[in-house]
Write a structure and sequence with these properties.
Layout lengths: L3 E4 L2 E4 L10 H5 L2 E9 L2 E3 L1 H14 L8 H14 L5 E8 L17 E6 L6 H6 L1 E5 L20 H12 L4 E5 L5 E4 L3 E6 L2 E5 L9 H12 L3 E5 L3 H5 L3 E6 L3 E8 L2 E2 L7 H15 L7 E2 L9
Parallel strand pairs: 7-8, 7-14, 11-12
Antiparallel strand pairs: 1-2, 1-6, 3-4, 3-5, 4-16, 5-6, 8-9, 10-11, 10-13, 13-14, 14-15
Length: 302
């Protein structure tokens, strides 16, 4: 059965889901996006994701032609069309069709695209074994160029870093900022454990302030842990007892080697595993109203 895609109010078969080659989202990466997860008929932290979408759009002077409530309804429509209770959702808004040249004022009709599909960034065995990280030469965007807080369609910075990690034989790349502090990985935030404290790069380190990142911080604080948002160096990572990455698609994935150095005992740490279990409980619990948005608009199997 063909996957259905939402584009500007229409549900189209995947093969017919097309936009113009003159769309500035394609020509210049001019647009914003969000990645979300649906679990058992509910979209995890839907409101937070949509708020961040509008913040990203506002930062690049992009007028989204729908309200937040209309976007929610559109997501539910796309999920129903594909009969999906569990899904990865890619929500995209492009600048729209324009002329050749950068002038955004010559663009019209921003495109709202919603894809509901499955995704697997890492094979399941890596959650049990852990992954290897390597620091790469490609630095994270300077906040005064394209601020990493803007979740925009131009991901070349991240792609170049990802290619470096592949060439180095590692699973994922650690990106530093212009000052040499740890920023994030190519599509995930990074955490480390030192003693009884949990550390993650400060938002001003040049990171996307991830929604999964904030959820993990809340879980850790709920366990009574001290969580530090700090300016971290590679040295801090090298001496960490545990290290893990977070992201909507990745969830929580342990890292066991950094730049050839073994993290802890070379196995996923106990706290990392406990946080992953608690995070997955949140995803599976429809009664946690503060973290799940109920599909009260009628999400059901047709």
């Amino acid at each position: 059965m063909s996957l259905k895609v939402y584009i500007n109010g229409e549900i189209l078969p995947q093969e017919d889901a097309k936009i113009s080659v003159f769309d500035h989202g394609l020509l210049y990466g001019d647009g914003v996006f969000e990645g979300l997860r649906a679990h058992n008929g509910r979209v995890f932290k839907l409101t937070k994701h949509i708020e961040r979408l509008f913040e990203s759009a506002r930062a690049i002077f992009l007028e989204i032609p729908m309200t937040a409530e209309e976007i929610k309804e559109a997501i539910f429509t796309a999920l129903r069309a594909n009969n999906m209770k569990d899904s990865y959702i890619r929500l995209v808004v492009t600048r729209g069709v324009g002329k050749l040249g950068l002038e955004p004022r010559k663009c019209s009709n921003p495109q709202v695209i919603i894809i509901t599909d499955t995704i697997q960034l890492y094979p399941p065995e890596l959650y049990a074994k852990g992954i290897e990280l390597v620091t790469v030469a490609t630095v994270r965007n300077h906040p005064e160029s394209v601020n990493p807080r803007i979740k925009c369609l131009n991901y070349m910075n991240n792609i170049l870093a990802k290619m470096e990690s592949i060439n180095a034989g590692a699973t994922e790349a650690i990106m530093l900022n212009k000052d040499g502090f740890v920023a994030e990985c190519t599509g995930q935030n990074i955490f480390m454990v030192n003693g009884e404290e949990l550390y993650t790069p400060h938002p001003n380190s040049g990171i996307l302030k991830g929604i999964t990142r904030d959820t993990v911080i809340d879980i850790a604080k709920g366990r009574g842990m001290k969580v530090m948002e700090d300016f971290l160096t590679r040295y801090d990572l090298y001496i960490a007892k545990e290290c893990f990455l977070t992201g909507t698609a990745a969830q929580i994935v342990p890292a066991v080697k950094i730049d050839g150095r073994i993290v802890g005992n070379g196995k996923p740490g106990q706290l990392t595993q406990e946080l992953l279990k608690e995070y997955r409980k949140l995803l599976a619990n429809p009664e946690v109203s503060e973290t799940f948005e109920s599909l009260e608009t009628g999400y059901s199997r047709p």
